[in-house]
Design brief:
Layout lengths: L1 E2 L4 H6 L10 E2 L2 E7 L7 H14 L12 E4 L1 H4 L5 E4 L5 E3 L16 H6 L9 H11 L7 E6 L8 H5 L2 E9 L4 E9 L2
Antiparallel strand pairs: 1-3, 2-3, 3-9, 4-7, 5-6, 7-8, 8-9
Length: 187
């Protein structure tokens, strides 16, 4: 398993964080990978995570503790509409999930992590759609998506504190590549 260093996706998302060496949109850090071995379900996803976290060293991590749960592509790529922006600039969406004291420090939806970062400019639903169209140019029908627990690496400690922590791995059968998305942010 190896990281893809040059990809049109990386060029496209530079507009969202032009000064970064990493590949962020909102709070989502993206890693694209390729494997010479045939796809083998969860085992391959775990190897993709291992390849990414090997690069993030030195971190205390125990990937054996990571628990995967299959994610539905329709729910994962759900993109809410903006209902209103209040006087203080807070954006309100037509989504069931709402940020509140009960769910901070837990997993946030992918759309929220991309559109509502702790630091930097907020993104719009159009940005969410554009990023994913470039990331998955053949659509989302051929994707295997796993959401992973985040209690196995200190990478996620900041996110557990307040904003949220997320770890997703996606295998795109049509492109034979993996995407690992990480979120961990606090104020």
């Amino acid at each position: 398993m190896h990281e893809i260093k040059n990809d049109a996706f990386y060029d496209q998302i530079k507009q969202y964080d032009p000064n970064s060496e990493d590949h962020f949109v909102g709070e989502v850090e993206y890693h694209l990978l390729k494997d010479d071995k045939p796809y083998d379900g969860v085992r391959s996803h775990r190897e993709a995570l291992a390849a990414v976290f090997d690069q993030l060293q030195p971190l205390n991590s125990d990937l054996d503790k990571a628990k995967p749960a299959a994610a539905d592509p329709d729910a994962f790529f759900y993109c809410p509409n903006i209902v209103k922006t209040d006087y203080y600039g807070n954006v309100h969406y037509d989504a069931e999930w709402k940020p509140n004291d009960d769910n901070f420090g837990t997993t946030v939806p992918y759309w929220y992590a991309l559109m509502e970062p702790v630091h930097g400019p907020k993104n719009k639903p159009e940005d969410f759609k554009k990023v994913n169209e470039v990331l998955f140019p053949n659509g989302t029908d051929e994707l295997d998506i796993y959401e992973w627990s985040t209690d196995w690496s200190e990478f996620f400690d900041d996110g557990h504190e307040w904003y949220g922590a997320c770890c997703w791995s996606i295998y795109d059968k049509s492109m034979d590549r993996y995407v690992v998305m990480l979120v961990s942010a606090t104020d």
